[in-house]
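Obj.: predict assembly geometry.
Materials: sequence records (below).
Method: joint structure prediction, all chains together.
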Amino acid sequence: MKARYGMAIDLDRCTGCGACMVACASENNVPRLPKATERTGITPMLVHPVSDGKTGVAFIPMPCMQCEDETPCVKVCPQQAVELDRATGIVMQMPQRCLGCRYCMTACPYHSRYFNWWDPAWPAGMERTLNPGVAVRMRGVVEKCNMCHARLHAAEDKAAEAGKRQIEAADYVPACVESCPTGAIRFGDLNDGASEVAKASRTPEAFRLLARLGTEPKIYYTSKRAWVRALAERHPAGEPSQPAAPVAAGGGEVKHG
Amino acid sequence: MKMPRTSIFFGFGVLTALAAGWLVFPRALYERREQPFRFPHKTHAEKSGTSACNDCHTLGKDGEFAGIPKTKDCATCHADRMGSSPAEALLVDNYVKRGRETPWLVYSRQPANVRFSHAIHTRLAGMTCRDCHGAEGESDAVPVYEQNRISGYSRDIWGHSISRLRRAPGDGMKMSDCENCHRRHGVDAGCLGCHE
Amino acid sequence: MIPTRRDLFAWGGGLAGGMLFTPVPWKVLDDVSIWSQNWPWIPQPARGPVEEKLSSCTLCPNACGMRVRMAAGSPVGLSGMAGHPVSRGALCPLGFGAHQLNWHPSRLRNPLHRGRKTSWEEATAAFRKALGEGPIAIIDGRTGRAASTVLERFAAAHGATYAAARTAEEKALGPYQRWTGVPTSSLGYDLENARTIVSFGAPLLDGWATPGRFTRLWSERAAGSSNPALRLIQVEPVQSRTAAFAWRWVNVRMGSESALASALARVLMEERLVTARGPMPSESVNELAGKTGLAAETIQSLARALVERGPVVAISAGDNPSVAALNVVLGAVGARGGILRRGGGTKSPVPVEALSGRMRAVLIDSTVPWEVRPNVDAEVFRFAAWHGGTTTADWLLPAPGFLEALTDVPTPPASAIETYAVATPLMAAEGSKDAARFLAEIDPAAGSLEDAIKARCEAIYHAGKGGLIGPEPQPVKGLASADKLYEALGNGAVWTGEAGTPGGLRCDLKEWPGPSAMESPAGWTDGWTAPVLPPLAAKLYRESDLRQAPARSDV
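Observations (raw structure tokens):
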């Protein structure tokens, strides 16, 4: 059976502690370069603070949205360095194949892709802490969240050892999901109707960022707060705000408050 | 008819190139490196009764393939010298007694972004060790490691035939070899299946 | 035949043409492209079998249970230990990068004397000399450890003062210790049974005590609900992240937390919302309200909200007797859902703040936060694994880093349940020495860490209470010997005693306490004894603005 791995992130539970970012960077051997800035640093998982201008505060953890259809980065890549994996639904970036044109970064509506402006480096000795499951990227290539697929591989190996083709759901949990102290990030197979993430994606509180673009992201967000849900379709200044009705997973309309 | 002098020299040039390219180049490209000591698979299979590959090259419960055994595994038998072979003396004196790992040169070493699951190939696809590794388990000594001077990888990755035309099964471990076998068996792993 | 220039060109042309029919250009192209994908200067992870060990985080006293993924002899990844009774499978954001700390550029590798490299022998000689001249003080950062026993025993044998630095959570429990005589290390909040929690600036969602404990509880019982099962009321002058996600945020004037607590107590007693009777704050509600910047009506409705759904407990950010007195009025001391007395705990030593004047020398353990500087004029021997910048210490002595030395992990502050764990060294600590070993070398009578941990195991084993959580959960009674307990703890099991029970803690106020000084708000790094942040945490926080005020709107 084919899986479609996705997340449902409860924005009412995210306190913005940043554990997911650190756990992600540690898992994926993201270097720490003092010269990297907010614009040039690599943060496959990035938590954005937002506010309603009064006392309402929310934090939006943003990994790669794992677009299902018309995946913008896949469409534009001249190198086939990124592909939508049909067996898992993971949009898989292969930095070793990337030639660094950064077309995908322009195409990505979520700014979820990062360019390696420098060769990775660690303080002397710290390379010993690198995760052996993940290859280190080099200067000049683009990378992004691959849904910790090294963990998927480990889960597949474990299942295969037991003679099974299906992995145990508990064996494949991305680092950000595992690290969340409030359990805000739920992860699982969207094709499995009984999974927590599939259920969460069908609630009226569920929404996806920029759903009007039709990229069908597999990262869902949920919030009981109308102003948070309204952020999903915010139109930049100057763009006419079309009366597009964002469609929730269940086919129902998302109510904007 | 007399051949033009230019053609003779041209033809001579072609011959030089062919000779250099097919005969000299393959030898020059690889640096022959000896393994730390001779390891006879055959003797081990005969004397210790460990005829199954995975007695030593274990596949863990979590599906992780252990690869070459560690020194402490060797030490379960070779804590002290058992025979008179110089290879064993090297193992015991240099590695077991000093608690160091043997720096084996690994023929199958791939770049870090390549993932190969022994568990999936042997447990699910029903392949045997011999399908890829040949009769290595019956050899009397491990082969010489030939290291590519440019890429740094073993000759076994490209395969022993420089033309890659007539090759024994299991010779060559390039991405196209993986792909061809997968295609023959109708298994689509995508990029994600084999790359980290 | 002599080849002409023309012949040479023909030969060259043939050579070039012929080359195309050899493997040379194609193979070289292939090899060069492979080489170019694997620049030799790019570090690659070590290859080796991956194994997982259980341990406890030792960077602060909050004792989070950890799973450590090890490859080629180094930790390569950390995650929370599911089922841990206090941390409940969570780690703080800093904890996830802690395994990188041992290679932090600020790591101390050599003993330093006033910035100059020196040797352990010189440091030992200097300390011996100071010890002979006296008086000296030994400062511990985390009491109740095996190392504390060694430090304390050494201090007792040599007439030295044994003092301790306390975390904000321990300070907040200080008034109850003064009023009931029960040491703070035996007190904990019964958060799991509370239904209303009023926090006076305590960063409950942002690194208060063992982070997983409250964040998980909040997530299960409060998050996203307008009528939560657990009401969190945050009193704070700024909209911290805890305030932002609290059920109610009470925006008070800076430093007026004591006034608000007093005003609430006065309303509770005047309106007979509580049964408690006792000394009242001397100021009227209106006077107190004026200090807080809130209307008296707001305070009255807040008081009613407090008792609407009990049990209720108040938590302060630091030593705030007014908040403690409010708990007495609310009947939360010694009650279910309030402040409980639990097993274990040790007599509180002299607080480091009480040290003053002239001393010959002060020895500071590596568990003491870098910012803590005793107010004494003395020769300072400071143990630390990392150099934290400005220091007045004469001697900087390199202590073992993260997971480099054997240490035990007693019950974290504010926990309602007694726990005990042991963190075994997973890596070699080159050239470093902890204070306990340093002192035991000077006077072997102070004892060794191993013996002190074994003694603790003996005590737990003979008491026969509680059980082990971890790879093989079982009750202590099921273990064959104390050595088995020691062994299991070394493999990452966590001993969990019995939870504190209501009663056994009585507290009567003689007079209403005066206002206390404002405590600066603490956070993840409070009690974090490493003076540096894990490199990843420092970098990512900067890039995400998470540590700035969240009132920014920008997706």
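Conclusions so far: The helical segments of chain A are 19-27, 72-76, 103-107, 149-161, 175-179, 196-201, 226-230.
To do: check interface contacts against the pulldown list.
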